[in-house]
Amino acid sequence: MADKKVNPSILPGFMELLPNEQILFNNMIEKVKDSYERYGFLPIDTPVIEKSEVLLAKGGGETEKQIYKVVKGDTDMSLRFDLTVPLARYVAMHFHELSFPFRRYHIAKVYRGEKNQKGRFREFYQADIDIIGNGELSILNDAEIPSVIYTTFKELGFENFTIKINNRKLLQGFFENLNINNYQEVLRIVDKLEKIGIENVRKELLEIGINQEKYEKIRDFIMFEGDNLSTLSFLKELKIENVTFSDGLKELETVCYYIEKFGVPKNNFKIDLTIARGLDYYTGTVYETFLNDYPKIGSICSGGRYDNLSEFYTNQKLPGVGISIGLTRLFYQLREAGIISADNEKLIKALVIPMDDYLDQSIEISNLLRKNDISTQIYLENAKMSKKLNYANKINVPYVIIVGEDEVNSNIYTVKNMKTGEQTKMTIDDIILELSSRN
Amino acid sequence: MADKKVNPSILPGFMELLPNEQILFNNMIEKVKDSYERYGFLPIDTPVIEKSEVLLAKGGGETEKQIYKVVKGDTDMSLRFDLTVPLARYVAMHFHELSFPFRRYHIAKVYRGEKNQKGRFREFYQADIDIIGNGELSILNDAEIPSVIYTTFKELGFENFTIKINNRKLLQGFFENLNINNYQEVLRIVDKLEKIGIENVRKELLEIGINQEKYEKIRDFIMFEGDNLSTLSFLKELKIENVTFSDGLKELETVCYYIEKFGVPKNNFKIDLTIARGLDYYTGTVYETFLNDYPKIGSICSGGRYDNLSEFYTNQKLPGVGISIGLTRLFYQLREAGIISADNEKLIKALVIPMDDYLDQSIEISNLLRKNDISTQIYLENAKMSKKLNYANKINVPYVIIVGEDEVNSNIYTVKNMKTGEQTKMTIDDIILELSSRN
Predict the structure, then answer these.
(1) A14 neighbourhood in chain B, CB within 8 Å
(2) Residue-range domain boundaries for chain B
(3) Which residue from B8, B22, B140 is facing A44, i.e. has the nearest CB?
(4) Going residue by residue through chain A (439 aa), what tens digit of pLDDT does each one get?
(5) Which pTM was predicted?
(6) CA A279, A318, B376, B341: dihedral to nearest 10 degrees?
């Protein structure tokens, strides 16, 4: 027996749930997984620890500052900070064993030593899909991805959400046409429009040397409001003579046409010319997804098209398109917004309570229920009936089956519905039928 | 485009699978999870990184040498090396929010910087269940655990396995009765019997000061062969007057009686007086599980009863009983032994191949299949039919649906069974029926 106790605590910025909430979280993961699999994405699982030279091959930026280093022996190792870099390494490493287009999903934890603040986590689940082509990849894939987003969020119980779509080539061509060379920098400012407002965007643009005339053209462009058809018309009418712009416009038009074919309803997707995605590796289509009733939550699913997934590991050209859902943050925010609560989630279907000397028969009944795939617990401790029923209440089990002398003699058991308090006498066959039907 | 490429590789001792094997591995996890849930165990998920003072509260031994330290800021952090220490911390930390007996399962990765050797992994999945009591926990739980082991391995497709059972009190009492005080040391040697043979056990015992007379008593004890009833008789007939021994014997008898009640067939469990489990925190029942046809694989599921789960974090007395399956090692060994192979595992049910200009109709069919929960991929790239069919072969998809002019005009589609090569003409409704029934 140790005398000096260590305080049982976890690190700040890490999420840990009680079982009733963990069940909700796991259900969320299950639904995302089912939806990804329905679209023919294959699972992979990569090591959490990788060589630092692999994870940081691109180098620089926030990534390097946020990374968790791992110490054991001489190798410089780190924890992965996303699932994209491990994918890039995976595809380059297993190139000759994979079939392209390679469609994979990966749902797993990643690590970022971010500043500690509410709703930001240092360990969190990402749920990614990507489609990787060998040399080239049809633009049609860019149209299929939103249908995966749509199906996934429908499965998660949402109706009122919008997948916002844009194309980086369109933006790049537009800025090139204005003779703006530092367009990556401009994009990063434009991307903040929703957050900081147009006046601050103006200020920041002027600060980096954009003049008033050009600012106004940018403003008219990013502030354009209309449905998809009128946005496409507006873009055409700009009559911008720039190949990149024309390519982007053509891609966006194709993507919008086929998104509908892939079954996404018109009011669940929308062209939004302000969506740029801060990351500079996106090269074409970009996506962000918003819950219309909870704009403050921000984008819940983002991604896009990139030209060259594994450029730091191989000379193979591997274009791809993909999305990522930050599940831990999403769960936290949905819970904070009161959209999900642990009230009605039950994993255990029945608690069998033996009375007095009827343990053997209680075990038999538990065996039967479990054989019929009904999740069952049997109360094995020595306790008064009131304590046993109190336990049933606390673990939130929907049915309690009491096994005593009368029950064993008559083969008719007392089933208590813990929600209604109602007690019914039933045969074992009826209990199995009743509990199986209530999935 | 980066010019100097980083070699895309992973660290030694880490397992990474191709998708077809990953599917098999995930199926294994699913089955274990389903079985654990059927017995009313609740899920938890704890951080992979914890404070070193928490993980190493017990201190000393192999653990400290094998631990991966994590560096970021000032806090001394480490990666968990098992799921038991995090459970001990979890139960102490959330004590007032949990209901006891608390039954949890946890399937997750753990990290140990072991020596690099074949079949040993530094990152591996463990699948644990534990039942924790508040103050006390009925011995009946020790009898229920083997039924979870039995169900789990049956679900995994095994028939011929043996759950070996012993009781540490029995061993302790036996050694006390021989006036052997360093019985923990003796147990560690006895535990190696299977590996090193009786002659080496003798040598090692004599080395630590056990005399020949005592050795012979120990030998007769651990070498006893018989079915459960005769083992229990043998133990009774020893007439050892030691309270610990008597307690252990009574517990073992109760556990054996109820294991059968819990539905474990007689030939799937057996008392084995040599099972001691090296770890010194087990205090009563101990389990090890062996595949009878593959004795070399060693124990595939071990565990036991302990007196005080969280003694390093709280004064609450929390006895428990649990088991752990090392899934990564098990998967590796089953694959090496040729027991599982990736041959017949398919996640994608159908590949829709559009001909010429029939993309829209192909998308429609994919949508329909997916709505009917049939995992479907559509081939979106520009390629010759031979390349498309070759892709279907490589991804190992069971059905290909070809959509061309004839098909669209007649609403009758060509479905190719990729295993038999057989081509059938079918309506969409029939396709859905056919593919749904083949789960």
Answers:
(1) 47, 49
(2) 26-39+88-106+124-336, 347-437
(3) B22
(4) 446 899 999 999 999 999 999 999 999 999 999 999 999 999 999 999 999 999 999 877 777 889 999 988 889 999 999 999 999 999 999 999 999 999 999 999 999 998 888 888 999 999 999 999 999 999 999 999 999 999 999 999 899 999 999 999 999 999 999 999 888 888 888 888 888 999 999 999 999 999 999 999 999 998 999 999 999 999 999 999 999 999 999 999 999 999 999 999 999 999 999 888 766 789 999 999 999 998 888 899 999 999 999 999 999 999 999 999 999 999 999 888 888 776 656 788 999 999 988 999 999 999 999 999 999 999 999 999 999 999 999 888 999 999 999 988 999 999 999 989 999 999 999 999 999 865 4
(5) 0.94
(6) -120
Q: Please report residues of B whose CB lies closer than 8 A to that of A48.
A: 48, 109, 123
- Establish whether domains A10-158+293-345 and A347-437 are of one fold: no
CATH superfamily assigned to domain B26-39+88-106+124-336: Bira Bifunctional Protein; Domain 2 (3.30.930.10)
Reported CATH class of domain B347-437: alpha beta
Retrieve residue A47's tokens: 């090591």
Residue B39 and residue A123: Cβ atoms within 8 Å?
no
Neighboring chain A residues of B71 at a CB cutoff of 8 Å: 68-71
∠ CA B411-B414-B418, rounded to 5°: 155
Identify from A363, A378, A397, A435 which residue to disrupt to test chain B contact, counting B C-beta atoms within 10 A and taking the largest count: A363
- Do A39 and B377 lie within an 8 Å CB cutoff? yes
The residue among B85, B83, B84 whose CA lies nearest residue B52 is B85
Give the up-direction half-sphere exposure of residue A193: CA atoms within 13 A in the CB hemisphere: 18
Are B42 and A348 a contacting pair at CB < 8 A?
A: yes
**CATH number for the segment(s) A161-285:** 3.30.930.10
- The Cβ of residue B410 has, within 10 Å, a number of other Cβ atoms equal to 10
DSSP state of B352: E
CB contact under 8 A, B138 and A382: yes
Q: Does the distance separating the beta carbons of B375 and A38 come in below 8 Å?
A: yes
